[in-house]
Amino acid sequence: MDSLISEKMAEDLTLPDFVACGEYMEMLKMIAIFFNSGWSRSDIHFDVSETIFAQVTGGRQWLLTTPTDGKYLYSDEFPYHSGTSPVNWEAIDLVKYPDVSKIAIYNATLDVGDVIYVPEGWWHQAKVTGGIPNIAIAVFIDFLHCLKNAPPSNDSVFIDNCIKLREDKPREMKCNMPLNGMTVKEVYDNYSHLKPQAMKFTIPEFRKDIFEYQPLKSGYSMPTLGLGLGGMSPEEANRSIRHAMRHGYRFFDTDSEDETEATLGYIMGDNPYCKREDVFVIAKVHPKNLGRNATKSSVERSMKRLNTDYIDLILIKAPSCDKEMIDCKAAENPGTWQESWQALEDMSKAGSIRSLGVSNFNILQMEELLTMTTVPVSALQARFDLMKRNTKLREFCNKNGIRFIAHSLLGFKWAKSSSKTNPILHSQMVGFAARFYRTGPASVLIRYALEKNITVVPKSSNRLHIVLNKNSLIMNLRESKDALDALDNFPHIP
Q: Per the database record, which ranges form the JmjC domain (predicted)?
């Protein structure tokens, strides 16, 4: 586990004399504590800041290689996090990764009291070698500002640009503001102007109450971040829902055409994290169930499977059957979305549904809907990603007080075959932003949508990704104008 230091820890932590200088503090990115109760190792990766790593208890083995040799680590084949290699140094597959044999590896072992300096761009893996607990302190310094000064690129070119920046830097720095002997707490109390934005004495990412809510026209409120469940197997959904609830998620987007409703319904009735009234559930009416009677039956079936007497938000999934989007046979679609809406209004007035909405409607259909409603339209779910932003539709929703919910946010719609990579998740611009914020590309995309006043429910059955997605709630994209501009200027259809 690694974490920013707490305020109490800052009272006990004194900076080493060789960095106890105001000029260094102005470049300080972060001070972190590493805490481990067993034997573990990191992936092979490089950091976008210089690292001074001090071993407090236990030990660590470090394997390092130069930025130049890092091009042999196949990092551009690792899609989940920029600056990370898929190679396992403990069991190298030279058939799959033959160029690894060209790398010069440096081995260093840290014992209690030892300090290692790792320049920016050096690839490394750290392995815990004993001590329970195993504790270390890391100081991250932005000396080169590669993220700001190097253009978006793949990892190899990015590191080459960092090397060039290093050659232009002076070899010495004069310290005009010595801070020797001061604790970190004293430094920041007395020199608040030195405190970088990344340094926080509280750690909100571990709180469950960071989830934000937005009011709906129905009078109820909906979280801005949830978990999409559609298409998961019962086993995947069970693991994902319980893990998400444990980490504070209270918002789930289900699909009536799989078993996610039943899985969520069972868990809402039997879990240690929350009660039914704490959870916001989206259910959907499939276009094959359009028509007054079919829609009523569909909602009643969803309520039964969800083990609840009300649903927070019902969406008409699409206005009609569509081979491109929601495929179903014409014979399965005897009714119209207008009839379905009337049925939903009746159920809403009876108390079975709290909020009503639609999905995959265009502006003309939305305008028609608004002329016939007696119950307000609370939400529209439609496609939004970096390449297709639905700007006019979002503006329409904002103008009419309708909450816009994104689907297909991470760009998988653009990768229609297994041979085609995701042009958004794997793009250099998104990778550039992910490097800066020390997170994965998906977290950057989620935060970008939240900044656009969009509710998001990304699907994930990966436990790490579920937590990283949550941490997007506290990410500040405005820390880097360059990273934000890269996202804004991503080639797209308005």
A: 1-158
